Structure formats: structure tokens, C-alpha cells
Amino acid sequence: MKITKATSSRIGHVDFENLVFGTEFSDHMLISNYQNGAWEEPEIRPYGPLSFTPAFHTLHYGQALFEGQKAYYMDDGRIGIFRPEMNAKRLNHSAERMFMPEFPEEWFTEGLKALVKLDREWVPKAEGHSLYLRPFMFGSSEFVAARPSEEFVFCIICSPVGPYYAGDVKVKIEETYTRATSGGVGSTKSAGNYGGAFYATDQAKKQGYTQVIWTDHRNHELIEESGTMNVAFVINDTFITPPLSDRILAGVTRDSILTLLRDNGLLKVEERPVSVEEVIVAAKEGTLKEAFGMGTAAVVSPISVIGYRGTDFKVPVPEEGYAMKIKRELTNIRMGKEKDRYGWMTIV
Ligand code: COI
Q1: Which of 157, 179, 193, 272 would bridge 214 by S-S if both were Cys, CB 3.0 to 4.6 A apart?
Q2: Which ligand 1 atom is nearest residue 164's CA?
């Protein structure tokens, strides 16, 4: 892989004590172009602008998708990337649905490793901090006819990050706007899924909430996701999360938490449709013990309030509750404090 190193590093200008998620970028990026029906071997070069003309395909038709994963500074000084092969597979799932070319999985993981190795000084050392890795792909042809792009760019940039949310979140059960529909692109990480969510989220923010809980597009009776995350509820002693479908993103954090819970027996586990009604009834009756979002950025994000049709239902956020226990277990594996018994860490 061709590597062109930056002549000087910007790292000295970064305040690692006060990182704002996704605003600082490391010295290098990886890039590969798709031309004449094939990907070129990726290369690493200094982080910097890309150039394009106003007819740039992705600006018009949104053939664009991304991934997100993290590299961690481990207790013994090694650096590990969490389950990168899952992201490589999911990128290609998104690519297929968005009619974009699949990117070779080996180049994805080897490219990530090479990039993180080169920018290893950028991996924050503090607990709960990491180097957020953002692979993304977009159509780069130059025409405005409404047909698929013929050329594409795959790129990876890296951003040192701290915690995503400052504390727990207040969510509103959304019954007007929809994130995903059956037969749509909800299971992909296509850019438009996020762009299309900003308006509804802003409306909820104006009402005092942090995020929305997305419900099904037909009747708004089933719970699907929470903001940009998968969602789970602990009702009595059961962990319940909606099953994967073409409307729900197959979260790597979701999968990891399900694996841990099925092994450690902390809670009963149910992957099944979750109705708004049962969550509200459980909140009223006090059997809703906890609720939280699960995602790469926030890892586990406790929900303290669920707003439904004008009423706010409080949800306990115990300091030593299940959300925190699960987060601790994941953190311990990522920091190398606990044996990596699932082989989740790819050491660079
Ligand atoms: C998540 O972890 O929830 C994400 O999808 C990443 C976010 C920055 C969009």
C-alpha cells in the first residue's frame, strides 16, 4: 500500500482533555477510487480536501454511505480495533442496497490497521475515549442524469473522541415522522437515513427532548430504534430489543451486547417486536427497570425520560444498573482488562 506521510503533525494543536465528538481529524486518511469497474489499491496520504465540480454525483443523488468503529488504547499499550470485520461486511451490505460497488473486505481491514498504526499517537489514552474511525463511500461521477454513478470513492478518516452524550437522554416516541420503511434502506448506513432524521430530531429538541424513538412506519405502534442507535428495554428481569429487519440497522454494539448477555446470564434476552404500549404500561407500573440506546458512538446511552403523547415517563438510571454493567464489560474487553474471549479486538 502506498503511504505518503504528512510533513508535520497537527496533533500538538489538539486539546485531548476537551474533545468534541468528530471535530478533530488525525494526520492521515486512506483513499481508493473505483474506476472502469474496479477499485484501485488504497493509498494513505495526508488528511486534506478532496476536489470536485458542481456536477458531482453524490451531491445530487445521494449514493453515499458510511461506517463507524473505534480503535482503543489498551492497558498494555497495544492498540486494538473493535470488530472491524463486522463493519466491512455491513459496508458491503449498504453498498449492495445503494447500488454501489462492494469494497474488498481485506482492503477495508488492512487499510484500517495501516492507517491506525500510522496515526497511533492520535488514539486517546483516557478511559471512555477512543479513535473514531469513519470509513465512507460516495458516487463521484460528474453528470446530472438520474442514473447510478459509475465512479466511486472510498475513504477513511479518523477522529479522536470522548463520550458522545454528556449524560442520560430524554427521548420522545415519534409518531409523525418515519426513519425507515419496509423495502427501504433502513438497514443500511446510507447518508440519507441520517439527513432525513435531523428535522424530526430538531422538533423533539424544541420540545425539550434529546432524541426521538423511531416507531414503525405503518401504525407507529412498534419501537424500532432510538436516534442513531439500536434500543433496548429491561422489563422486570428481561432484556428486550426489536429484531433486525430491513428497517433496523444491524448494530455491532447491539450484537456484542446480545452476545455478552447470552453468555453471562445477567438477564433473560428477548429479540422480538416491542410495542409502544407495553413499554408505556411497564413505565407506569414500575416494571420498566431501564432503557438505553446501543451504538458505536455512545456505546450505551441510558434513557431517563420517555415522552409519549405529551406525558413524560421517568425511567430509572441506576448508577450500578444493567446498562452500566454491560458498558463496563465491553469497556474491559476493549481496554484489555478482561480476556478477549470472542476475538473481538484486532491489534494493529
Ligand atoms: C452511532 O454510533 O450511533 C452512529 O451511528 C454514529 C453516529 C456518529 C452517526
Answers
A1: 179
A2: 8
Query: What pLDDT digit, counting tens, does each position of 76-124 carry?
Result: 999 999 999 999 999 999 999 999 999 999 999 999 999 999 999 999 9
186 and 151: one domain? no
User: What is the share, in percent, of the chain residues with pLDDT greater than 70?
Assistant: 100
pLDDT above 90: residue 163: no
Q: Which atom of ligand 1 is nearest to the CA of 297?
A: 2
Structural domain range at position 68:
2-162
Within 6 A (CB) of ligand 1 lie 68, 194, 228-229, 295-297
- Tell me, yes or no, whether 338 lies in a domain: no
Distance 296 CA to ligand 1 centre (A): 6
Number of neighbours of residue 239 by Cβ within 10 angstroms = 23
d(CA 204, CA 172): 7
Residues 243-280: pLDDT tens digits?
999 999 999 999 999 999 999 999 999 999 999 999 99
232 Cβ contact list (under 8 Å, min separation 6): 239, 240, 241, 254, 257, 291, 292, 294
* CATH number of the domain residue 213 falls in: 3.20.10.10
Mutate to test the pocket of ligand 1, among 66, 83, 164 (most ligand atoms within 8 A of CB): 164
Q: Which three cell numbers stand for residue 312?
A: 413524560
What's the pLDDT tens digit per position in 274-307?
999 999 999 999 999 999 999 999 899 999 999 9
pTM value surpassing 0.70: yes
